[in-house]
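pipeline stage [seq->struct] | target=ECA polysaccharide chain length modulation protein | organism=Paraglaciecola mesophila | residues=332
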Amino acid sequence: MTDTKNNTSEKDKIQYVAISPDMFQAQNNDDEIDLRELWNVIWRGKWIIIAITAIFAVASVFYALSLPNIYKSEALLAPADTDQQGGLSGLSGQLGGLASLAGVNLGGGKTDKTALAIEILKSREFFAKFAEKHDILPDLMAAKGWDMASNTVIYDEEIYSSESGEWVREVRAPKKAKPSMQEAKQEFEKLFSVDKSIETGMVNISIEHYSPDVAKQWVDWLIQDINSDMKMREKNEAERSIKYLESQINKTTVVEQRTLLFQLIEEQAKTLMFAEVREEYAFKTIDSAEIPEKKSSPRRVLIILFSLFAGCGLGIIIIFTRFFSENSQREE
C-alpha cells in the first residue's frame, strides 16, 4: 500500500511539472491577447474618443477666451531700520543695567518690527482703514474686467451701478447690498500677498487685479499706509513714554534716578525726531511697483491642454465601460 501511494504521488509531481510550463505559457498568451484586444477596442472607438476630445477642446477654447486677463503688480521692500527700537523696550538693551540700579523697569527686549508690520498689513483693522480711506470696494467686489482702450474698470451692473455709485446686488440676510468689511477682507486676501525672504530679509508685496493701474496703485497705497501706521504707533508710544518718564522725575529726588530718566527722555525725543523726518519709516522701497504690461493669468494654453487630456481620458473610459458591459452581458 505504501509503495502504491508513493508511486501515485510521484506521478502527480511529474504531471504537475510537465503541465506547469504549459499553464504559464497559456497565461502569457491570454495576457497578450487581452492587451491586443484592449488596443483593438480603443481603435474601434477612436471616433468616439476624437469626438469627445474635440468637444472638450472647443469648449475649453471658448472658456479660456471668456476669462478676463489678470495683472500682477509687486514691489520689493527692505526694513527701514532693523536696529531701531521704539518705546521703552528699545532702550532696555542699552540702559537696562543702569535702570535696574536706579530702580526703573524698562520692560521686555527687542521686537521684530518687520514681522509686526507684516502682521499689521494682514490685519482686519488695517484693511478696514485702507478700504475706507481709498474707497476700494467697487474695484474689489464689483469689478469683472478692464477696458484697455479707455483704461477703465468694467463693473458688474448687477452688483454695483457705476453711474449712480450705488450697490444693487441682491443678497440674503445677514449680508447687505453693500459688502461688509469682513466679506471684502476675504476677497482681498485672494488678490493680496506679502512675503518675507528668510535669506535676505526682503519683503515682497503684490496685488492682482483686472486693471494693471489699480494693481499698481493699491501696492503704492499699501506701502504708504503701513509706513504711516508704523510711524504713528512709534510716535504715540514715544509721547506716552516721555509723559511717563516726566511723571517719574517729579516723584524722585535721587540724583542717579533723575539722570537716568533724563537720558531715557532724550532717547524718546530721538524716536519722535525720526518719526517726523522719515517718510519710509517701516520699509524702504528697493524696487517700486510698476504698471504691468503682461498678464499674470489666466494661462489659456494650459487650460486647453488640460481639457484635451480630460476629453481623451473620458472617451477612453466610455469605450472601456461599453466593452466590459457588453462582455458581462454575453457571459450571462
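stage status: PASS
auto-comment: Residues 71-287 form one domain. Residues 110 and 204 are 23 Å apart (CA to CA).
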